[in-house]
């Protein structure tokens, strides 16, 4: 397949799935397997285009960020707690990501493993939705520091492809007593330092491959970035509305169906 067309398709996949509890990395791996491309050649692309989806959150929630920045300048306690919670939640991924992520990916970065993880994750969501009572903590600044740390450790589960970073953080926050909308927004905001850090590390590690022509070029990466940004702009608001009305059940069933279908197709290959 033409690289530019593949970049557009993967940009759409990233934009749709980054903030849904369905695993964007897992979908990119499965899409790559079904498109038949060389995963190593597209690895940096798959990381960097996630910044496009992250930029969508910055644009959609610019008022929140502006309020927090002004609050920090005025030493507002709520703004300080907002930033504190995001930093605390980011620390586990920063530490464990540096120490263990490469080893985990070497063992588990396989399409069939992703398909199974999608199915298992879907079942886990259904169980959590049924057993966990709605939380009462509203607003990121109101989240206790220990809860933020717990969410940070649960985010590390997403280092297993197919688990879903947003799914692990949102459902983790719910089990720790955070209400749905706050849990979703906490996950959106936490994605910013997490994915920025991952992109910097991946880019530094693959510059030589790009110079040698063993990675897709900057044009494909740029196209994927823009497409993922535009699509994520549309998806984030829709996702918050769906969660508020229907919870996470629809995404759980999607994971189970998509994982089962992918597993069947991969087995036939």
UniProtKB/TrEMBL annotation:
GO annotation, biological process: cell wall organization; peptidoglycan biosynthetic process; regulation of cell shape; response to antibiotic
Keyword Transferase: no
UniProt keyword ATP-binding present: no
Further information: Bacitracin is thought to be involved in the inhibition of peptidoglycan synthesis by sequestering undecaprenyl diphosphate, thereby reducing the pool of lipid carrier available.
Main location: membrane
Membrane-topology annotation of the record: Multi-pass membrane protein
Species, as recorded: Sphingomonas pseudosanguinis
EC number: 3.6.1.27
Function (record text): Catalyzes the dephosphorylation of undecaprenyl diphosphate (UPP). Confers resistance to bacitracin.
Listed name of the protein: Undecaprenyl-diphosphatase
Chain's gene name: uppP
Keywords, ordered alphabetically: Antibiotic resistance, Cell membrane, Cell shape, Cell wall biogenesis/degradation, Hydrolase, Membrane, Peptidoglycan synthesis, Transmembrane, Transmembrane helix
């Amino acid at each position: 397949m033409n690289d530019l067309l593949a970049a557009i398709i993967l940009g759409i996949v990233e934009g749709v799935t980054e903030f849904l509890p369905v695993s964007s990395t897992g979908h990119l791996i499965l899409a790559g397997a079904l498109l038949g491309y060389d995963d190593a050649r597209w690895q940096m692309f798959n990381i960097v285009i996630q910044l496009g989806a992250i930029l969508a959150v910055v644009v959609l929630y610019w008022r929140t960020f502006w309020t927090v920045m002004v609050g920090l300048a005025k030493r507002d306690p709520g703004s300080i707690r907002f930033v504190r919670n995001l930093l605390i939640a980011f620390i586990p991924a920063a530490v464990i990501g540096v120490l263990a992520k490469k080893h985990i990916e070497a063992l588990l970065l396989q399409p069939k493993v992703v398909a199974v993880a999608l199915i298992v994750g879907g079942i886990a969501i259904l169980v959590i939705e049924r057993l966990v009572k709605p939380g009462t903590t509203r607003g990121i600044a109101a989240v206790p520091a220990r809860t933020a740390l717990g969410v940070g450790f649960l985010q590390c589960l997403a280092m297993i492809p197919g688990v879903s970073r947003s799914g692990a953080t949102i459902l983790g926050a719910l089990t720790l007593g955070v209400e749905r909308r706050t849990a979703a927004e906490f996950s959106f905001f936490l994605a910013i330092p997490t994915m920025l850090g991952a992109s910097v590390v991946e880019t530094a590690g693959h510059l030589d491959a790009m110079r040698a022509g063993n990675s897709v070029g900057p044009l494909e990466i740029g196209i994927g970035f823009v497409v993922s940004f535009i699509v994520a702009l549309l998806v984030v608001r829709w996702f918050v509305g769906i969660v508020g009305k229907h919870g996470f059940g629809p995404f759980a069933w999607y994971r189970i169906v998509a994982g089962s279908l992918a597993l069947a197709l991969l087995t036939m290959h």
